[in-house]
Amino acid sequence: MKRFAIFISLHLFLFLLVIAYQAQAKEDEWEVRSFQDMVIASVPGEIVHGDKLRFILKKGNCRSLNVLFSFLTFNVPNEIHNLEGKRISIKTNEERIMNRADIVVVSPALNNRAHFVMLTSPQSYELSNFSDEIMEAYNSSKIFSIELMDDKEFKVEKYFDVTSNEWNLERYPEKISEAYDLCIGAENIDKYLS
């Protein structure tokens, strides 16, 4: 009987440990990573979890920010690769914080049953102003959304089965500060090494 109680207690402990770990992982899904010439803060999508919204700071110019985001699509027309290099219309939170995006990569996924499409803002933004604008938009609805839009030469639904995604930016101020500190730290290290 004693062995059975220990066995049950051990399994219960492991179960609670797994639940606690999953809750913690869900709470902070943000990633801040340093690469050779950039620091990236990213958060997964709320509609399509694998679609990340990335904020990129380039070492050497940490006060400038680029935005990179992805859409996974199961619409796979033969000419989907022709999208690379195209500029398309987007809408963010029913506003125009960003109104255009460049498609930089179209890559097959899931054994060619889907494609991963990476888009970026055509210009860089001043970090402080952009952060104020994006948080103002986020705080008004507690979600940040990007919707891909039709225009004269581009019909979204031909290429994308999911045409919008949302991201939780509650921790953006903290995570972009962490990315900025990492970027500045790398700049300072480079100065000392030169």
Please give a structural write-up.
It contains four helices and ten strands, in the order αββββββββαβαβα. The chain has 194 residues and is of the alpha+beta class. Strands 1, 2, 3, 4, 5, 6, 7, 8, 9 and 10 form a ten-stranded antiparallel β-sheet that branches. A hairpin with a 4-residue loop joins β6 and β7. The longest helix is centred in the N-terminal third of the chain and has 26 residues.
Topology:
Blueprint: H1 2-27, E1 31-34, E2 38-44, E3 52-58, E4 61-73, E5 87-92, E6 100-109, E7 114-120, E8 125-126, H2 127-141, E9 144-149, H3 156-159, E10 164-167, H4 172-193
- Along the chain, the helix and strand elements come as HEEEEEEEEHEHEH
Total count of helical runs of at least 4 residues: 4
What is the first-to-last residue Cα distance? 69 Å
Q: Roughly what is the average pLDDT, rounded to an integer?
A: 84
Estimated helix fraction: 25-40%
Oligomer, anyone? single chain
- Residue windows where pLDDT falls under 50 for at least 5 positions: 4-26, 190-194
The Rg value, from CA coordinates, equals 21 Å
The biggest sheet, with number of strands, parallel, antiparallel or mixed sense and barrel status, is:
10 strands, antiparallel
Class based on secondary structure composition and strand pairing: alpha+beta
Q: What is the beta-strand fraction?
A: 25-35%
What's the β-strand tally?
Answer: 10
Gross morphology: globular
